Amino acid sequence: MAQDGASRPPLRPRYSRPSPPRPTTRPGSVWVVSLLLVGYGLLGTSLGTVLLEDAISHGEEDVVILMAVISLLLSAAQVTSGIGLFFGARWGRTGALTVCGVNVLSVAVAAANDGVGAAQAWIAVAVNAVLVFILLGEKVHGWTGGDN
C-alpha cells in the first residue's frame, strides 16, 4: 500500500438535513395540551397526596401505599412534561406521550379489575387519545424541534 493516500477514497464532509425553522409564536395546540397536562397533573398530585396521607394514617396495606406513591410520581411526570412541552423541549413531548400511554394502560387495568366504571374508563381513554393525537401533530412536532 502506498503511503501517499492514493489508495483510499477522499473523505467527504458529513451534511445533515436542514431543520425546519421553529415557529416564532407558540401554537395554540401547545397551549391547550400543556395546560391540560399541568392541570390534570396538579389535580392528580393533590388527590394522590390526600390518598397517601389517608392510607398511611389508617394503616393500609403496603400495596395501597405503593399505588398512591406511583400515582404521585405519574402526576409529577405529567406536570413536568407539560411544562417542558410549553417551553419547547423535546423531552416534554416524549414525556407527555409516555404519560398518556401509561394513563391508558392504568385505566385499562383498573377497568378490568372493576376499579373504575365504564363511563370513567371511556372518558379517560378518549381524553388521552385526543392528547396523543395532538402531540403527534405537525404543530407540536415543529415546536419541540422536530426530528433533530
TrEMBL record:
Protein name, per record: Major facilitator superfamily (MFS) profile domain-containing protein
Chain ranges passing through the membrane: 30-52, 64-87, 94-112, 118-136
Location of region: Disordered: 1-26
The organism of origin for this protein: Micromonospora pisi
Superkingdom in the source lineage: Bacteria
Keywords: Membrane, Transmembrane, Transmembrane helix
